[in-house]
Amino acid sequence: MIDFQALAKKYGTPLYIYDLDHMTRQFEKLKEAFRGRKSLLAYAVKANSNLSVISHFAKLGSGADCVSIGEVRRALLAGIPKYKILFSGVGKRDDEIKEAIESDILYINVESEAELGRVEMIAKEMSKEARISIRVNPNVDPKTHPYISTGLHENKFGVDMDTAKRMYITAKNSSNLDPVGIHFHIGSQLTELEPIKEASEIVADMVRSLAAIDIDLKFFDVGGGLGVRYNDETTIEPYDYAQAILGTLKGLDLTIVCEPGRFLTANAGYFLTKVLYEKVNGEKRFVVVDGAMNDLIRPSLYNAFHKVEVVGKKEENKTPADIVGPVCESGDFLAKEYPLPPLEHGDLLVLHSAGAYGFGMGSNYNTRGRSAEVVIENGKDRLVRKRENFEDLIALEKEFLEA
Ligand code: LLP
User: Fold this and answer.
1) Contact at 8 Å (CB) between 22 and 54?
2) 3-23 pLDDT, tens per residue?
3) Considering the entire predicted model, what is its pTM?
4) Neighbours of 247 (CB within 10 A)
5) Catalytic (active site) residue 258
6) Structural domain boundaries of the chain?
7) How far is the centre of ligand 1, averaged over its atoms, from the C-alpha of 224 (Å)?
């Protein structure tokens, strides 16, 4: 049991809280699912990029899936070995490609023919051979929210199978490219197995047809996407997920790379916010809190549901209310029509499942400093990011202010 009252008192609100032991359990569950097979779990750093969180995964033996050179630097700083780091993303800059090659990470996930050309050119200038994997787009509908669906041709990610084949041949014939893997990621918050299986089958066939022309890959990178329960969704069991993938790889000797983000961190995280006021506009009840869309944008952006817990109060006489923040946007809400007891100034609300894509998608909109972040491990809490103050927010502008 987390003592939210004590944490609010100690660190203030709004506050992000991460249970590292929950993250460990999730990591072990997934690792176990692939037992007996060569596998690498590369934590998708974007889900929660706090250095202490990444460092926790490093200690568990995790790799890191990164989508900017900033994330690669974070992963290295947090202790992830370079040979367990992947660099993905649809638009990498030259300087990012150069640094990734210099850092000698496991491989770069290439997302277009043009990008392959850049990687080759840069590697050539550096007299190096860049290890690459190609992100293919298997054109499978992942059956998830359109904003987090990525495996259809209408999405910007990856390349179609024919293009991929051409790219592998180019890479094979280049002395500056070493094609070591194949990558796909069809979407996030996946709750059905069939699309993963279908995609995996298509990509495994590609691996076989490449082997037939003497291009032998080592890594089969299935991306991330494993969904979690926010409300009452049915989710996929790690074991079934692993079996679905492994079932498509018969006769192939590959290391399976998996890039989980949400699965590892979402339900380990809580967003703690304090009630400022209650108000009623006509018939409509609002609970105004000190957290806002700049702290947790998922409800505003995806209409995402986060379970709300009222701290230390009997949940009686509940009526529906919108939980809204101080930001000047009608879209600034954390929950809609949520049944809540009468609340007063100082009451605490906890939004659950906030450990993935919470703090990381935050902003300073309305000159609001971002929340502090705290972790709990073995029953002990510790600060892992200070609350931003006004000085932090103006630090990069102040010197330009004319007298
Ligand atoms: N690998 C790749 C290439 C990805 O694009 C992603 C997520 C992951 C791995 C990790 O996916 P996960 O295991 O977390 O589902 N902001 C959205 C989610 C965006 C996901 C983007 N890509 C949200 O809050 O739901």
Assistant:
1) no
2) 999 999 999 999 999 999 999
3) 0.97
4) 12
5) no
6) 4-15+267-394, 34-260
7) 6
